[in-house]
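step 3/5: co-fold with zinc ion
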Amino acid sequence: MAGAKDYSNKQVSDNREQVEHHVREILKLIGENVEREGLLDTPARVTRMYEEIFSGYAVDPRDVLGVTFDEQHEELVIVKDIVYYSQCEHHMAPFFGVAHIGYIPSGKIAGLSKLARLVDAVSRRLQVQERITSQIADILEEVLKPHGVMVVVEGEHLCMCARGVKKPGSKTVTSAVRGQFRQSSALRSEFLELLKR
Ligand SMILES: [Zn+2]
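step 4/5: write tokens
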């Protein structure tokens, strides 16, 4: 995935031994035998995974967009099906899905792969889906100053599947609209229609 491996959570690497220690303690507290073979390297593996899945903290999402200029194109730009993986901040359980971004440039555009980097930077943290959605919209609005932005995020939450209400397969859909998308239902419909293709 674009940008996913380019940076990692340095705070985790700098405190590797402590993080491993605490993972080991949790394993003991759930009743595990931390000396058995399958678990010997688990604290180290979890720590390396944290470097990656929490790599969003290492970057300011505003900086990943790599803005370029194009005065010509002031029509709808859509990048859809951008896969993301995140961790729900309530349970530290994974949720994942796809994000769809549409915007109408007013001179500044972002490289298409940079939109995927933005999604990574925002989602590789402890998050809630609603905030991922609004942060993507707000950052695009702030950095590109487009005529309008619409973001739709779909997500499947393991904390909904594996625990609590236990509803596997249910999907959460969130959206955020800014600028012209807020005023024009025709524009919102055009965006949603193009997502279906
Ligand atoms: Zn949760």
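step 5/5: annotate
The helical segments are 10-14, 16-29, 42-53, 112-123, 129-144, 158-161, 180-183, 185-195.
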